[in-house]
Amino acid sequence: MDDNIVAISTALGVGAISIIRLSGKEVIKVTNSIFKGKDLETVGSHTINYGYIIDDDKEVIDEVLVSVMKSPKTYTKEDVVEINCHGGIATTNKILELILTKDVRLAEPGEFTKRAFLNGRMDLTESEAVMDLLESKTESARLLALSNLQGKMHKMIDGFRNSLKDLISAVEVNIDYPEYYDIEVVTTEKIKEQVNKMKSELKEIIKESKNTKVIKEGIDTLIIGRPNVGKSSILNQFLDEEKAIVTDIPGTTRDIVEGQVILNGVSLNIIDTAGIRNTEDKVEKIGVEKSLSLINQADLVIVVLNGSEKLTKEDQEILEKIKEKTAIIVINKNDLKQKIETEKLKDYILVSTNTNQIEGIKPLKEKIIELFELNQICQKDFTYFSNIRQLSKAKEAYQKLIDVEEGIKRNLPIDMIEIDLKACFDLLGEIIGKTYSEEILDHLFEKFCVGK
Ligand code: GDP
């Protein structure tokens, strides 16, 4: 960690400006050696300095602005220099190559953030939030990442850990002074009360964290139904009315249409198999089978039925298949004379993609918002566990609290109970990175882009 690192922090390509970022003990000196302008080693911290980058033959490579930020109030807590040069692959690379001939090496992916973590500027949840923020495509994903970046999760976990620390100290007193019988009673009562409180708070956040997948990755939605019931009309209406960010996703087969729309700040990743509708009956059947096989992977299944026809055997088959799934039954073509036997259906909504109809697919959208509580998601405080790593540790910590309660119930010796309290304390510490393994760090930061 003592060495100097450099990376291009902006996306490579033609742009007005590129930023080359350096971090480490000697980066100000190194930059100064290739800079014509003020003496960067004597300028104040957090200053922007105008000048030129010059090579070893004193040839000017580019006109630049150099930000000098001195340790410790920097992103990595080390000395940091950012060179703002003219955006363009040739210029940016030439400056980078020049720097690499000095005592500086190319940063690994996420190494700036890794240093920020290792130097104690941010915890693990905040580091993960940096990446989430870079990757966020929707408003809700951005808010979740920002909330974690601002340290909300960190504060909450710290709160739990402080309470546990108090309890553990109380237990230690108890073990050290066993002759005071009174202390044990007080301690056990205190543990019971505090653990119960923590348990219910942690449980609530674990429960709320089910929203994380929806927020970060969206709702994988499958539109399923017989040919000609109106599946692609529904998809198209979604794409027309809501902000579509991607239409055709590469790699999918021609007969599956995918679309991504943003509904209430959350992404709906819609798959529709309607592309097969103009082919032979036999092929249509294969299409339906294909849709059926996709049911398991979907977070939401929209079953489309044709209201102007009676239910068919195929409809029944589909309805049978989605019994265990989060599903919405949509009766389409509500503008036509209705023949469908609605009494055979439990819960359904009526829509029409016919443009003369005022409601259109509005009831379907409302149902999705209701089902996934999308209104609340966007208004809520975003203190959620933002990935599986955090969530699984939180669940383990929760289990330890249950073990503590059980131990007290079974009158286990206080030092046995202390083991579970300490285990819970450590697990919560792992979430924020108080304890970590190299393997976990490598795994986490390799997903970052170089330069972050
Ligand atoms: P898919 O095979 O399930 O994808 O069905 P399509 O979306 O291609 O629709 C099949 C036919 O039904 C087309 O001719 C549509 O114009 C028509 N259709 C779709 N939705 C409605 C609706 O709400 N009302 C009416 N009257 N016709 C519809």
The separation of the N and C termini measures 16 Å
How much beta, percentage-wise?
Answer: 15-25%
Rounded mean pLDDT score: 86
Which structural class best describes the helix and strand composition? Answer: alpha/beta
Largest sheet geometry:
7 strands, mixed
Low-confidence stretches: 245-254, 275-279
Biggest sheet, spatial arrangement of strands = 3-4-5-6-2-1-7
Please, how many helices?
Answer: 16
Helix content: 40-55%
Order of helices and strands: EEHEEEEHEHHHHHHEHEEEHEHEEHHHHH
Bound molecules: guanosine-5'-diphosphate
The dominant shape is flat
The Rg value, from CA coordinates, equals: 29 Å
Number of strands: 14
Any overview of this molecule?
The protein is of the alpha/beta class and 452 residues long. It has helices at 27-33, 89-100, 111-118, 124-135, 139-149, 152-176, 181-208, 211-217, 231-241, 281-294, 313-321, 362-371, 374-379, 388-409, 414-432, 438-445; strands at residues 4-8, 17-23, 35-37, 47-54, 60-69, 80-86, 104-106, 219-224, 243-246, 257-263, 266-272, 300-306, 327-332, 349-350. A hairpin with an 8-residue loop joins strand 1 and strand 2. Helix 7 (181-208) packs antiparallel against helix 14. The chain is flat, with a radius of gyration of 29 Å. The model is unreliable at 245-254 and 275-279 (pLDDT under 50). Guanosine-5'-diphosphate binds at residues 225, 227-233, 274, 277, 332-333, 335-336, 352-354. Guanosine-5'-diphosphate (GDP) binds next to helix 9.
